[in-house]
Specification:
The protein is mainly alpha-helical and 120 residues long. The chain folds into two domains: 65 residues, no CATH class; 36 residues, no CATH class. The protein is elongated, with a radius of gyration of 25 Å. Strands 1-2 form a two-stranded antiparallel sheet. The protein is 60% helix and 10% strand.
Length: 120
């Protein structure tokens, strides 16, 4: 739905939000119309909903911090999807990597101990 149509629809939708706090209205708006936080705040402000300035600035800061964190998670996911023990002779299976890049998982020593314990 384009912004113009959304704003027309939102005027009617806002009537169903009586008695709710602006932050709750913004959360419902973004879910109902499928928009992000900043779009919801901008459009609701144009419709007369006032948001606490401290909350808006905290939200913007949080969203800015989320982008690098998402990129790091994506990068770490790519590392975790590498074949096990690629380039590392210490591990029988690398389950993943810490934020600092250190591998963790099952070492060859643990694998040997398990083999001996089960007579394999």
């Amino acid at each position: 739905m384009k912004q113009e149509a959304r704003l027309v629809s939102a005027r009617k939708w806002l009537a169903t939000q009586k008695g709710r706090k602006p932050v709750a209205i913004a959360n419902s708006y973004r879910k109902w119309y499928g928009v992000d936080w900043l779009c919801a705040i901008r459009e609701l402000t144009s419709l007369g909903i006032l948001f606490p300035e401290a909350w808006v600035s905290q939200l913007k800061q949080s969203l800015e911090n989320a982008l690098p964190a998402k990129a790091r998670r994506k990068e770490n996911q790519g590392i975790a999807n590498q074949p096990p023990h690629e380039g590392n002779g210490d591990f029988a299976f690398i389950a993943g990597y810490t934020d600092g890049g250190a591998p963790y998982g099952v070492t060859w020593l643990a694998e040997e101990a398990r083999s001996k314990a089960y007579g394999q």
